[in-house]
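Standup notes
- DV: blocked on the single-chain target, sequence here:
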Amino acid sequence: MKLIALILLILLLPLSILVAIALFISSPGAIIFSQERVGQHKIPFTIHKFRTMKNGKITFAGKVVRKLGLDEIPQFWNIVKGEMAFVGPRPLTQFDIDRLGWNTEKASNRWNVLPGITGPAQLTNICNADLSLSKDLTYVEQRSSSHDLKIVMRSALVPIIGKHTS
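- DV (later): unblocked, structure below
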């Protein structure tokens, strides 16, 4: 997976440059947003994304970049570094883990796998902590290469067909 992520980073370099220029023109400042997240076995790491917000608001270019999922491209570097996978539970901040109440024994299996750029919980447009945790835990229990491929394919279609409602 690391090699695939590295190849994608290289192939997507021209697009990444265009995204960076658009984001900078739309909102001058840093192009990359970095933040500490909790990864596999609850080990902290720094996630990287294209910055799509300024002063708490999504910028014009940021809206387009997010809709197309292009803000996630820098996370391929996190995959190369072994901190993330293409598919897995969403990497959260410690603040979000505490806020969601996911410091429980019930939620502990969630951190047995690498966090992912995409995952089953990201494919639904329902914002519900219990549903998200359930989808993450089911993924951890039932993960397979074929399941991951289906999730990646569905994720690629989200900008076109939208997210599921369940």
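- Follow-up: Residues 1-83 form one domain.
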